[in-house]
Amino acid sequence: MVTSRDVARAAGVSQATVSRVLQGSDNVTDETRKRVMEAVSATGYEPNVLARAMKTQRTQTIGVVVARITNPYYPQLIEALSAELASANQRMVLWTSEGAGDAGALEAIRQRMVDGVVFTTVTAESVPLHEALRRNAPVVTLNRSVEGIACDQVTSDNLGGSTQVVQYLVGAGHSRLGFIGGPIGPSTSAERERGFRQGVAAAGLHLDERLCRRGDFSHEDGHAAMRDLLTLADPPTAVFCVNDLTAIGAIDGARSLGRDVPEDVWVVGYDDIAMASWEGYDLTTVRQPITQMAELAVKLLLQRIGKTGAEPRHHRYPHELVVRGSTARTPARTFDHD
Amino acid sequence: MVTSRDVARAAGVSQATVSRVLQGSDNVTDETRKRVMEAVSATGYEPNVLARAMKTQRTQTIGVVVARITNPYYPQLIEALSAELASANQRMVLWTSEGAGDAGALEAIRQRMVDGVVFTTVTAESVPLHEALRRNAPVVTLNRSVEGIACDQVTSDNLGGSTQVVQYLVGAGHSRLGFIGGPIGPSTSAERERGFRQGVAAAGLHLDERLCRRGDFSHEDGHAAMRDLLTLADPPTAVFCVNDLTAIGAIDGARSLGRDVPEDVWVVGYDDIAMASWEGYDLTTVRQPITQMAELAVKLLLQRIGKTGAEPRHHRYPHELVVRGSTARTPARTFDHD
DNA sequence: CTGAAAGCGCTTACAG
DNA sequence: CTGAAAGCGCTTACAG
Question: How confident is the model at residue A26, as a pLDDT?
Fold first, then answer.
């Protein structure tokens, strides 16, 4: 393995000079720089990032915590994060696990393995998140947020998006609305439910609690909940689901009972994952600007690594209602958000 | 930040002794060990993994290269890899990008950032793979393989799986078979096509080349290819697709023309991704033992990090035909593989 | 069994 | 502008 010392020997300079050239220091003669660079390519030298990290206290590595990578929304988010990190010359360490996947992230922070962490699936109960903040480690939440913590957060306007869905459904003549929500903890789940309820109240409708179910963001739970709803004596005519995966499960659940979407029941999801636009489902949904959100999350995190102390902010991106066949294609333009 | 020196001071021993205790060395008195461990918890000490890695020349980090994480097969593979690496106490660095995503992996190997790399999407043209092998870096290919390289490789029996699909279709009375393949490079694509062709030949059927299309493993390409095939004067009665995503696209393509699957055309995929079993598609497909494959890949890689020199091997796992509604549910049991 | 010391491969004040 | 030296925080021969 070739080190900077070998390069120095080949170039006839000191090891410190090699380091200076590679750091792009100004204090080097053009002549010296040239000799060093030639020696670098002659020897095939690559700096050892561990040694560099040890000195600089920067690993150029960002941790990303994501559960449920099998929900297609997250691969899209990871892809965006990955591109963004790569262009900032950062490596990405990924923790993904249905269970305590973020424990690894905390360990990595403590062991100085990563410079910062992006939490995409996190709840107020996350010990790693709070521990990281307590240690002043650079952290940003993306997609989900946690109230009352001093931390940069990037989400979209889940509340507004859900309210808009209700306005759209009510505007199309529905008054018996169903809701298949998510678990209690995650902010996405909570905000979309609140948006739904506020929208229903604002429309002056009565919400039948028997039409409100709760699942785990999964296809399976959407499937089961929809079957439940449709076998009620007085089923909903339109069902809003906490995310696309649940909505697609709901559509499949309706079909498993021989019901047609949107003929018998309208279905709306949230996220606009790729498969939402496939013929098999053709799902009306709310789109989040994933690329922009990932971009900002990385930018905020890198800024915070540079210097702590800046006031943390919560950025909420606007959403966009995407109307498709699962709601009988009532024109979307009248429902555009601001 | 607390270091082993701080712990030593607190315990009244030398820094070397702290290190020995943490390494689980035998040459330590129980009494000393106890004092050190108490000092560790009192100070909240966590070893700096960078410093450790610098000394040991092991980062405990494995790189994973995967393109097209938006193909749901790969998240499943990553999840399995992630679990396996976590239980081996290894970190996972992920490179994912549609373009030259594996360039980062090569750089990481050269800079000693990772101990080894799992290539899941790779072709014979991959410069990083060949460079890594040339440098004797620990490497394993998973899912895809490359012929003629000295490298541990873990795949499933794509050839056998595809042949079995043909036997199943022919056994059910089909003689006009279509094929929607993948790109030229990847071994999965090549082997599944070869298996298909061999199966057709073995059945004594004539293969109409106009019924053989090529896509990019994507929903979109399956969609387009199926529309092409179904608008031929003499369309196929059954279409085998190189992977599930293509097959699902093919089903949607058929539906977009008002055709029914399996009434008008049977469709078979490959991978058995989660959505293959959803009502919306209910896809007959070939299942690969993802968990076992990931397990073995990690095991082989870690072995090779321990010591080079062992003869590299290519492990091919058996597959399993999973018959569902997209092929009219002809009983599968008569087609079980050995 | 334990300590003092060397060294992993860099970066960066400090002199000159 | 350049070199000699210190030091990042560990592990591990080498003495004793």
Answer: 77
